[in-house]
Write a structure and sequence with these properties.
Blueprint: H1 2-5, H2 15-28, H3 34-47, H4 71-79, E1 84-86, H5 95-99, E2 104-106, H6 108-118, H7 120-133, H8 141-150, H9 154-161
Helix pairs in contact: 2-3, 6-7, 6-9, 8-9
């Protein structure tokens, strides 16, 4: 979100994408509760008001992906003229079917590495804004790096620590 708010990326999502991450978050963290997940969703919408993609549904049926339930993501990317789908789920978004639509797939780690290379100062400022958003309890830069590594951003954290 901090990358989107800073203008480094143009985040795009649909109601279906919101529903999917919300369901998965509640499965992994039932202690959060549905009202808190809804609050997160509302805050995302407020922070990046032009991110919601609508009108993509007619594209879904004509798309082919290993998991048909993921076609809505590609349809939204095509409709929004997105360059990249950011996901950890690379197996269900193989490059070949995406290429014909001018869409790439990247992991969050790959995206953040690319941003650090292209826009190092702005990317570090966005990461600092992320660090500053943790208030209860606050986190140090080292703790943020640890959290990023735990989230799978291992190449990014290695790059940050080596510069």
């Amino acid at each position: 979100m901090h990358l989107a708010v800073s203008g480094l990326v143009a985040a795009r999502w649909t109601d279906a994408i919101h529903d999917e991450w919300g369901r998965n978050l509640l499965l992994n963290r039932p202690d959060l509760g549905a009202p808190r997940v809804q609050r997160i969703r509302d805050l995302m919408e407020q922070a990046v008001p032009d991110a919601r993609v609508i009108g993509y549904e007619s594209l879904i049926a004509g798309l082919s992906l290993p998991d048909p339930d993921d076609r809505h993501v590609l349809a939204a990317a095509i409709h929004a003229e997105a360059d990249v789908i950011v996901t950890l789920n690379l197996k269900d978004f193989p490059q070949e079917p995406l290429e014909q639509y001018g869409v790439q797939v990247m992991t969050p780690d790959t995206l953040l590495l690319a941003l650090l290379e292209a826009e190092p100062l702005a990317t570090r400022e966005a990461l600092e804004a992320l660090r500053g958003s943790f208030r209860r309890p606050p986190v140090t830069w080292g703790e943020l790096i640890e959290r990023l590594a735990q989230a799978g951003l291992t190449r990014t954290t290695s790059e940050i620590m080596n510069t």
